[in-house]
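FAQ

Q: What does a record look like?
A: Structure on top, sequence underneath. For example:
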């Protein structure tokens, strides 16, 4: 009976990890199709805004389902509180920057290079943790970051040598990495505003984002682009847009679920391995031929990221307070 229970546990963990991989990889490919496909819309802000709208609708849908099946589903109340909206607004501005630069990066670079373009998040985490929180980092962690930067540089060099380098896409990727780092730091500060509920924070972030995107779309001239889009009445276009929004909402759930059934370290390892699989899949799907040094750059970044996750785990383990054992 014990063996069966252990087997069920392993199957459950593998199922969750597989779901995370599927949702994450599918989201990248769907967004790439929307931003650079045959029916692409040259309005990345509108695409991102629509996906935020889908997330808000999904939150209301799950809240309604939770009311109908309270024994099976749990979801926080979604009453809009103007005070919470104001307090979450600074984080929402960072959130808008994060998802906008992420999609702009994906629009301008291939999926195979996307991981390299977005690989500096760990480096920015170390820098922002020091400059904002005043927390120092060990030499071992800095060495891992140096490896990541080296892999990033080699990847950019090889992408340029192959003739497919995009300076704009790379800059957007670096900015996306910066905003991802800022978002993770400020999320910890803002979470108490919503009583630590990540779903409530997701809801308020996306509500704010829907409003923030409107003036941005006007400033960057996307409104006439959208209204004159030839596929605006295409069912396939709106289907892909909606799928992108649903998977964008779903990635938050499966990420939290994977951390819950494994650990933060395992989640980081899974995410790194997923990125490697995504890179290989993209090169095969788009029939791309890459040099040995290009592949080496990916391995250096992956190795540096894995090493950093391991170093941080050991450091947290060593600094954790020891449990006191009663001698009575």
């Amino acid at each position: 009976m014990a063996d069966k229970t252990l087997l069920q546990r392993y199957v459950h963990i593998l199922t969750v990890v597989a779901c995370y991989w599927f949702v994450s990889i599918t989201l990248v490919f769907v967004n790439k199709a929307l931003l650079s496909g045959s029916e692409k819309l040259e309005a990345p802000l509108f695409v991102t805004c629509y996906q935020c709208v889908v997330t808000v609708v999904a939150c209301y849908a799950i809240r309604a389902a939770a009311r109908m099946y309270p024994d099976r589903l749990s979801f926080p109340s979604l009453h809009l509180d103007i005070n919470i909206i104001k307090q979450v607004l600074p984080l929402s501005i960072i959130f808008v920057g994060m998802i906008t630069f992420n999609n702009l990066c994906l629009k301008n670079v291939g999926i195979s290079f996307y991981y390299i373009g977005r690989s500096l998040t760990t480096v920015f985490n170390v820098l922002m943790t020091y400059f904002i929180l005043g927390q120092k980092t060990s030499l071992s962690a800095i060495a891992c970051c140096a490896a990541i930067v080296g892999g990033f540089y080699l990847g950019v060099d090889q992408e340029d040598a192959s003739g497919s380098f995009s300076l704009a896409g790379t800059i957007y990727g670096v900015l996306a990495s910066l905003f991802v780092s800022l978002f993770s730091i400020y999320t910890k500060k803002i979470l108490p505003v919503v009583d630590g509920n990540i779903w409530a924070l997701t809801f308020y972030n996306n509500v704010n984002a829907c409003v923030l995107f409107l003036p941005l779309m006007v400033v960057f001239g996307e409104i006439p682009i959208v209204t004159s889009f030839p596929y605006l009445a295409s069912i396939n276009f709106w289907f892909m847009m909606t799928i992108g929004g649903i998977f964008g909402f779903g990635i938050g759930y499966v990420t939290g679920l994977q951390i819950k059934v494994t650990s933060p370290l395992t989640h980081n390892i899974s995410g790194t391995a997923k990125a490697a699989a995504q890179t290989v899949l993209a090169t095969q799907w788009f029939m791309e031929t890459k040099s040995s040094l290009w592949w080496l750059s990916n391995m250096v970044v992956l190795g540096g990221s894995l090493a950093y996750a391991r170093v941080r785990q050991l450091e947290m383990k060593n600094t954790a307070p020891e449990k006191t054992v009663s001698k009575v």
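Q: Is there anything notable about this one?
A: The longest helix spans residues 2-36.
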